[in-house]
Amino acid sequence: MPRAKWKGTIGFGLVNVPVELIPAARDLDYHFRELHEKDSAPVRRHRFCSKENKEVSWDEIGRGIEVDGKMVVLTDADLESVQPERNQTIEIESFTDIDEIDPIYFDQPYFLAPANRSAGTLRAYRLLVTAMAESEQVALGRFVMHTKEYLAAVREREGALALSTMRFPDEVRSVDMLPEIDAEPDPAAIDDAVAVIDELSTEWEPAKYEDHYRLRLRKVIDSRRKGRTVTAPEPREEDLSPAPDLMAALRKTLESSGKKRSSSKRKRSPASKKPAGAKQAAKKSTKKTAG
C-alpha cells in the first residue's frame, strides 16, 4: 500500500474516526532526466543571483512575489502569520448529493483508511462508511495538510471512504470568458446529433481505455534500450475545416457507428454475454467482501 500523505481523524458529529490519507491515483508517466547531449551525463541546475552573477546557497534564498511590476519581499514571519491553524481533523461541515457538485471542482483523489486496526477504530470507520452508503450523500469539509487548508468531498466507494480535494469557487474560471455563440442549430440537426449520442452511449468500463501514448513510448524506450533505431512516422495532415454539410456529416456518422455496433455484436459469442443481473450481483459481492 502507498505511504500515507496525512494522518488524523475525520469528525462526524460526536464521532471521531482515526484515518490516514492514501493517494488513490498513481503517476505512470515517464519522467525524463536532462542530459548533456555530447556525453549523456546528467545536467545539474544551480541558483545564480542575476545581479551579482554568482551562485546562491540555500540559506541565502528568500521569497518574493511580483505585483504590478514591483517585487514584494516576504519574510518567514510574514508567511507564518497567515498559516492555517494546524490540526489533524477533517471537519465535516455539511452533506449533499454527488450530482450537486460539478466535476470541475474535483482535484486530487485519495482513500481514507483506518489509521489502526483497533476494534474501536474499525467499528467507527464501518459505521461512517455504512451510513454514507445508505444516505448516498457526500460529506463536505476542510482539513490542513502540510501548510495549506483544503476543501474536501468524502464519499463511500466500494465499502471504503474516498476523499477528493476540491477547488475553491474563485479557482474555477467562468464560461462567461468564452466567445459568445449566437448561431442557432437546425432542429433536424439537433435530432441527428442526439441520435449519434444515443448510438454511441454505453456503460462506463474503465478497463476499455488505455494511454496509447504511454504504450507507444514504452515500445520506443525498449527499442532504444536494445540499441535499435527508431523511425518517427510521417505526420498526418488533419482537415480541421468544418463539414460543408452538417446534416450529411451527422447522418454519415450515425450510419457508420450503426455498422460498427452490428459488427461487434456479431463477433461476440452468446457465452460471453453476462445475464442482466450479473453486474448488480458483482457489485453487491464486492461490497460484502470489502466490509
Question: Can you describe what's shown?
Answer:
The protein has a domain at 6-28 and 83-171: Ku70, Chain: A, Domain 2 (Beta Barrel), CATH 2.40.290. The protein has helices at 76-80, 119-135, 187-200, 212-225, 246-267, 278-290, and strands at residues 6-12, 15-23, 35-36, 41-42, 63-67, 70-74, 89-96, 106-114, 138-145, 148-157, 160-166. 9% of the residues are buried. It has 6 helices and 11 strands. The longest helix has 22 residues, at 246-267. Mean pLDDT is 85; it is low at 266-291. With 291 residues, the protein is of the alpha+beta class.
Brief descriptors of the model:
seven-stranded mixed barrel, disordered C terminus, Ku70, Chain: A, Domain 2, alpha+beta, 25% strand
The N- to C-terminal Cα distance equals: 18 Å
The helix/strand class is alpha+beta
| Quantity of strands, as a count | 11
Q: In CATH terms, what is the architecture of the domain at 6-28 and 83-171?
A: Beta Barrel
Lateral strand order in the biggest sheet: 1-2-8-11-10-9-7
What is the radius of gyration computed over CA atoms, rounded to a whole number of angstroms? 27 Å
Strand content: 15-25%
Helix content: 25-40%
Instruction: Please give the CATH class of the domain at 6-28 and 83-171.
Output: Mainly Beta
